[in-house]
Amino acid sequence: MSPTDTANELLKVRIWRGREQGRLVDYEIETRKNQTVLDVVTEIQHRLEPTLAYRFACRVGVCGSCAMTVNGRPRWACRTHIKNVVTDNTLTIEPLRNLPKLKDLVCDMAPFIETWQKAGAPFSGTATRHDKPAAVKPDSAMRLAADAALQCINCAVCYSACDVVNWNPDYIGPAGLNRAWTLINDVRHSKRELTFELAFGTGGCGSCHSHGNCTRHCPVELRPSESIAGLKRAAFSGLPEE
């Protein structure tokens, strides 16, 4: 470590420990140049608290598994530099909101994954490997709408940011509904009507209050609020057609 990498200033880090009835525990570490929140958590786990539980994988902003609540906002820890989020030289790190706490910064992702089933989000094709590939017009309105909502990697940041999820446990949430929107715009999906019925049913798109937190916080810059608005419009205009 070079002398320029280390500052004398100490950073106060408050980390959630335990499960639902846990508490915030304070730690202190030295700040370093270009340090990320994931770097901070890793250093505390390596040097100060070896039992600290958290998730990560790629470390380069691809997998989304290191999502945490940082100073009140859901973020990917590996992409978040502390210099951009520290307040009063303090960093508060908690697990994602709206999901059961398993231990420390680790949440149970099952309720989030289950929302995809509630939204009718699994793809169901009719073609087999023996059939010719379906003809999909890349410039059609349906394809463009689906393309704009793709690339979700199930990090659950939008689910954690959603105020409606927080007070309505039946609400499917932005990720599942965003996925449903891509499917009703996919001509290869054989269950477009069923997907729409589920996406507009109990706890579906009609429950969205259009706060926009899902779009505001999405790390890959998707716009789930627009997808949900598209589902609402389809209730009056019918399923999209090429």
What can you tell me about this protein's structure?
The structure is a single chain. This protein has helices at 37-48, 110-118, 141-149, 157-161, 163-167, 174-184, 192-199, 213-217, 224-237, and strands spanning 6-17, 23-32, 67-70, 73-76, 90-94, 101-103, 106-107. The chain is built from 9 helices and 7 strands. Helix 2 (110-118) runs parallel beside helix 6, helix 3 (141-149) packs antiparallel against helix 6 (174-184) and helix 6 runs antiparallel to helix 7 (192-199). The protein has 242 residues and is α+β, with helices and mostly antiparallel strands. 36% of the residues are buried. The chain starts with 5 loop residues before the first strand and ends in a 5-residue tail after the last helix. The protein is elongated, with a radius of gyration of 21 Å. It folds into 2 domains: 3-107, Ubiquitin-like (UB roll) (Roll); 110-237, Orthogonal Bundle (Fumarate Reductase Iron-sulfur Protein, Chain B, domain 2). It has a 5-stranded mixed beta sheet. Strands 6-7 form a two-stranded antiparallel sheet. Helix content is 32%, strand content 17%.
